[in-house]
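Progress report, Aim 2. The chain analyzed during this reporting quarter is listed below.
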Amino acid sequence: MKLLRIPKEERHRFALPLGQLIAGKREHTIKKVEEISKNLLEQGYKIRFYLVGDVVTKDFMANEFLRDHVMLSIIDEKTQRNETRSRFEEYFESVLTFENPVGCINAESFPLLEKIVNSQKKTLLKITEGEEDLLVIPLVKGLPLTPKIKNMVFYGQPPLTDAKNPLPEGIVLVEIDQEKKNAINGLINLMIVS
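Predicted structure tokens for the chain:
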């Protein structure tokens, strides 16, 4: 298994939000996401959501409006290293499993996520070994730029208190555009292949 690892001296870059941080408690952030999404629909866009994380998935699945637009959810059935059990399968057409070691990106995730996205099937991807956090990177890389469709990735942001610039908790919205793809390619180029 080929793995991409973050060099120790670059870890701070990977801890920063890859998109817009919607700060606040879960009840607040989910309402804000709903507001942003409805605004895009009113502007004539189609919206598609791609979720990374158990808490984000739980919140989206509990909201009927948001749930309808979820195309992919990547979970590891753990929240801050504590086991959780999901009951999300009923909302998805396909349920797949994958291994992604902690603190790494399994190189096989790049073609897998691109294939899932291209299938346009609502898919739940369960990480059976390891964690899902860094799979945001191959997911953003694999999402297409499509006119009149807003492909959006969401993941949870834990509070960063020991950073030079502390960050509050919230949810990160990554709206896929060329700038985001360039930033992701820059991060991938920093990683070490082993």
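The chain has one domain: 18-161+169-193. Residues 26-42 form the longest helix (17 residues). These observations will guide the mutagenesis work planned for the next reporting period.
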